[in-house]
TrEMBL record, chain A:
CDD domains the UniProt entry points to: ETF_alpha
One GO process term, biological-process aspect: fatty acid beta-oxidation using acyl-CoA dehydrogenase
SUPFAM superfamilies reported in the protein's UniProt record: Adenine nucleotide alpha hydrolases-like (SSF52402), DHS-like NAD/FAD-binding domain (SSF52467)
Keyword list, A-Z: Electron transport, FAD, Flavoprotein, Transport
Protein name per its UniProtKB record: Electron transfer flavoprotein subunit alpha
Domain spans labelled Electron transfer flavoprotein alpha/beta-subunit N-terminal: 3-181
From TrEMBL, chain B:
Family annotation (PANTHER family): ELECTRON TRANSFER FLAVOPROTEIN BETA-SUBUNIT (PTHR21294), ELECTRON TRANSFER FLAVOPROTEIN SUBUNIT BETA (PTHR21294:SF8)
Top-level taxon: Bacteria
Domain called Electron transfer flavoprotein alpha/beta-subunit N-terminal: residue spans: 23-211
Name this polypeptide is given: Electron transfer flavoprotein subunit beta
Keywords associated with the record: Electron transport, Transport
InterPro entries: ET-Flavoprotein_bsu_CS, ETF_a/b_N, ETF_b, ETF_beta_N, Rossmann-like_a/b/a_fold
GO molecular function, one term: electron transfer activity
Length: 308, 249
């Protein structure tokens, strides 16, 4: 078996989740190669070559793959991907956008967001917002798979794979990049952070989130939010933790003023330690919390920040 | 221009699904079914394109059993002009669904196929991208804003860490993310009117597409339960537990 892992990267930096996807590839077993497709992505390719278990890194460094436009990257993947038994990538923005198109071009189904590898053709994946786990088996010649990164422990960066340049370049001429608005932040990326502090509707306002940010900064963690807090306009939507937002699994997850709707729990219940701070002692979040504190978050969160 | 809106009948988002005792699937007997929330957003966007004068005709299409007519009537009550039911009682995977929609695209020649980004039952997030791949159309996925200008559309997309804007050539497949719009409710007179709008019924065989899947579901289980921990009485106790018991700070 030969597995092609398609690297997730941005601004010439390899996304850490790629190491988790390589771990999923190791669980399947076989020769593992990594493809880095983009424009000016040599540093990302070098970082990928250090991932443990990778035998070879393929780099398609060309302007047509800039911003990883789906039509062009999918055409490349459909061309080189047919020689592999498995194509894997992270179930992040780029993977979700590009991989189903690749699957269609290869005339195979895609297995989305796997959380466990049972065998080379059998995988587990959540359905119904994580309320059920399906075990699925694929008979397709090429298994096209996206991986939920938090379900696999990342491989170490102790490897030294050779890097080979690919010279294919197809421009479908169907779409072009116009612009990007990224939220600038010194805090760690939500899905990669070891500690996440999240606020919910109980935080009450955008200003109310100040104490959440302060606690996160004290702990060196990222800030998340529930769907309710996002919908109320307290924080931007890319901070949403939940089935329709980000899936996180940090060492420590602190939920302040979050009731614990199913859709939120689906996004954080795999955290190692969960702390819930909520005024309402009946809040469902306490049913999944390792440590629950029934208290007013506006008193408890600053006090916690002061005492850590 | 024509806008094609594929929609899906799914379990209502307020229903907490339970796994069947024999682990073959989730139990959908006697539960409320509705139009997939992301599909509602797609219908709304199509209706807004028509209200702006960009779209001239909206065609809703679905694949499913006879009962899925309800969702087509809903789409027509919201503003779709006519609809197509591709009737089958079998489970249809994403690739087969995309193949069937590709046939409808071939027949109808829409300039925009407007879809929800994923259905809340199987959570695959695949069919729009697959349809774009099969038809060779451009794609604008996870849209939070769509502006049609001539033979192009400017699409603002939700990506990790922010927003990306791309320009796609029409015809294109676009998929709706949560914040693209807030769908309206169907008004009673429109619900009545929708009953008279045309609804064609076809079968997968009419399109020459075989409903068979190489992806088999072996088992469906409830997720591992996380057991509740303890309540602490004070912040001091919490700090102590985090430092000395959990050792995470």
């Amino acid at each position: 078996m030969s597995i092609l892992v398609v690297a997730d990267h941005h601004d010439n930096e390899l996304a850490p989740v790629t190491a988790n996807v390589v771990a999923a590839a190791k669980a399947i077993g076989g020769d593992i190669q990594v493809l880095v497709a983009g424009e000016n992505c040599q540093a990302a390719a070098e970082a990928a070559s250090k991932l443990d278990g990778v035998s070879k890194v393929l780099v398609a460094d060309n302007a047509v793959y800039g911003h990883q436009l789906a039509e062009n990257v999918a055409a490349l993947l459909a061309e080189i991907g047919k020689d592999f038994s498995h194509l894997l990538t992270a179930a992040t923005g780029v993977g979700k956008n590009v991989f189903p198109r690749v699957a269609a071009l290869l005339d195979v189904n895609q297995i989305s967001e796997i959380i466990a590898v049972e065998s080379a053709d059998t995988f587990k994946r959540p359905i119904y917002a994580g309320n059920a786990i399906a075990t699925v088996q694929s008979e397709d010649a090429v298994k096209v798979i996206t991986v939920r990164g938090t379900s696999f422990d990342p491989v170490a960066d102790t490897g030294s794979a050779e890097i080979t340049a690919l010279d294919q370049a197809t421009d479908a001429g169907l779409s072009s990049f116009v612009g990007e608005e990224l939220v600038a932040s010194d805090r760690p990326e939500l899905t990669a952070a070891g500690i996440v502090v999240s606020g919910g509707r109980g935080v009450g306002s955008a200003e109310g989130f100040d104490i959440i940010y302060k606690l996160a900064d004290k702990l060196g963690g990222a800030v998340g939010a529930s769907r309710a807090a996002v919908d109320a306009g307290y924080v931007p939507n890319d901070m949403q933790v939940g089935q329709t937002g980000k899936i996180v699994a940090p060492q420590l997850y602190i939920a302040a003023g979050i009731s614990g709707a199913i859709q939120h729990l689906a996004g954080m219940k795999d955290s190692k330690v969960i702390v819930a701070i909520n005024k309402d002692e009946e809040a469902p979040i306490f049913q999944v919390a390792d440590y629950g504190l029934v208290a007013d978050l506006f008193e408890a969160v600053p006090e916690l920040e002061g005492k850590l | 221009m024509k806008v094609l809106v594929p929609v899906k009948r799914v379990v209502d988002y307020n229903v907490k699904v339970r796994v069947k005792a024999d682990q073959s699937d989730v139990d959908l007997a006697n539960v409320k079914m509705s139009m997939n929330p992301f599909c509602e957003i797609a219908v709304e966007e199509a209706v807004r394109l028509k209200e702006k004068g960009t779209a001239t005709e909206i065609i809703a299409v679905t694949i499913g059993s006879k009962t899925a007519q309800e969702q087509l009537r809903t789409a027509m009550a919201l503003g779709a002009d006519r609809s197509i039911l591709i009737e089958t009682d079998e489970a249809v995977d994403s690739l087969t669904a995309a193949k069937l929609f590709a046939k409808v695209v071939e027949e109808e020649q829409p300039q925009i196929v407007m879809m929800g980004k994923q259905s809340i039952d199987t959570d695959n997030n695949q069919t729009p991208q697959m349809l774009a791949g099969l038809t060779g159309m451009s794609q604008g996925m996870f849209a939070s804003k769509i502006e049609v200008e001539g033979d192009k559309a400017k699409v603002t997309r939700e990506i990790d860490g922010g927003l990306q804007t791309i320009e796609v050539k029409l015809p294109a497949v676009l998929s709706a993310d949560l914040r693209l719009n807030e769908p309206r409710y169907a008004k009673l007179p429109n619900i009545m009117k929708a009953k008279k709008k045309p609804l064609d019924t076809k079968t997968p065989a009419d399109y020459g597409v075989e409903v068979a899947s190489k992806l088999k579901t072996l088992k469906v289980e409830p997720p591992a339960e996380r057991s509740a921990g303890i309540k602490v009485g004070s912040v001091d106790e919490l700090v102590d537990k985090l430092k000395n018991e959990a050792k995470v700070v």
